[in-house]
């Protein structure tokens, strides 16, 4: 299959990973994806797009971190614009790359946790509150 099968989500995820940014947590990828498309990828989208980008040689993974390969970095450098325009430009650039299908296994519950960390960046680090017991009416 040739580059005609690339989807917009693939470009969105590649834009979120960036031109050399290493994401040590899935929450960083979720935050960057939100920046580019004002949306959060679903588990299916993430699994398919990261899998395709890895299998096609545009991303490398080590210890659950991703970074563009030289081919992925070259695509990034050829693309233009910022924000959503960068995603559109990357999608156009992807058409020149042969598509290899692949899947990346999203760890169970990891995307929900990443979204929570992105949406509530400070609260997830706080210790859990102890339940309060009312002494009202007790003397």
Report what the structure shows.
This protein has 139 residues and is mostly helical. It has one domain. Helix content is 47%, strand content 6%. The chain is built from 6 helices and 2 strands; from the N terminus they run αααββααα. A two-stranded antiparallel ribbon has the order 1-2. Helix 1 (8-17) packs across helix 3 (43-55), helix 1 (8-17) crosses helix 5 (84-94) and helix 2 (26-37) packs across helix 6. The protein is elongated, with a radius of gyration of 19 Å. 31% of the residues are buried. The mean pLDDT is 81.
Number of individual domains? 1
Strand order of the largest sheet: 1-2
Q: What would the principal axes of the Cα set say about the shape?
A: elongated
Instruction: Tell me the number of strands.
Output: 2
């Amino acid at each position: 299959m040739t580059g005609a099968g690339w989807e917009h989500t693939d470009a969105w995820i590649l834009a979120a990973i960036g031109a050399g940014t290493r994401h040590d947590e899935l929450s960083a990828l979720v935050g960057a994806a939100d920046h580019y498309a004002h949306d959060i990828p679903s588990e299916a989208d993430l699994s398919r797009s990261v899998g395709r980008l890895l299998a096609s040689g545009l991303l490398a993974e080590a210890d659950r971190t991703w970074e563009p390969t030289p081919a992925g970095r070259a695509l990034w450098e050829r693309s233009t614009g910022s924000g959503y325009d960068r995603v559109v430009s990357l999608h156009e650039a992807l058409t020149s790359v042969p598509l290899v299908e692949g899947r990346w296994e999203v760890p169970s519950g990891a995307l929900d946790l990443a979204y929570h960390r992105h949406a509530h960046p400070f609260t997830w680090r706080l210790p859990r509150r102890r339940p309060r017991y009312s002494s009202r009416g007790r003397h």
